Predict the 3D structure of the following.
Amino acid sequence: MLCTFITADTAETNRSWNDATVFSFWGLYDVEVFGKKTGQRALHWLDCEELRIEPKELRGAFMDFYAHCMTHPVPPLIAAIEKKSTGVTLASILSEMPGLSVRDVGRTIKDGTKADRHIKMQPFIASHQITFTEGAIHAQKCIEHMSKITANATHRHDDICDTAYDAVRIALIDKTLYFNSPGQEGQNQVMQGMRSSMSRKIAAGKKAWQR
């Protein structure tokens, strides 16, 4: 695994007829065939959580998801959050967290409509550049959600799909992820120390919330 990261699409309400808040956890890896690298990279959809919560609950919900992601052998260093009302607030809160780089995901005319974005993602799905761990709890939910996305935007929800598009755009289209290379041993040690510190802070924060 080259690196891992989180994409987030936040909602403004907990009402069931609106889109939910979704956090997705991704891993970027080199595709190999018979032990040889093909030059192609793919995304492994490590986890996905769909929540219907109020904006005031966003920080706690994200921290819980982030704490779970931090247990992965390759912890995430980046969280990409859609730049809209509740997302802007969450990104601002998280921006001061050590060990986590927060990226604003903006929507511009260049990105096109939702349908345009979903169409841009199709070639990567068709070429099997998005994978799941067999038997993963979230896999069926994500597959069912993605299968309901329509070109004419008649689908009911696209919150999970939006986190998938953002991951594909960052990792496979724009290729703006950074990850460790063999010459970064010193940086690796620094980042490991930051992760350990953050893990302790998360644990302490959880205890405080439970009091």
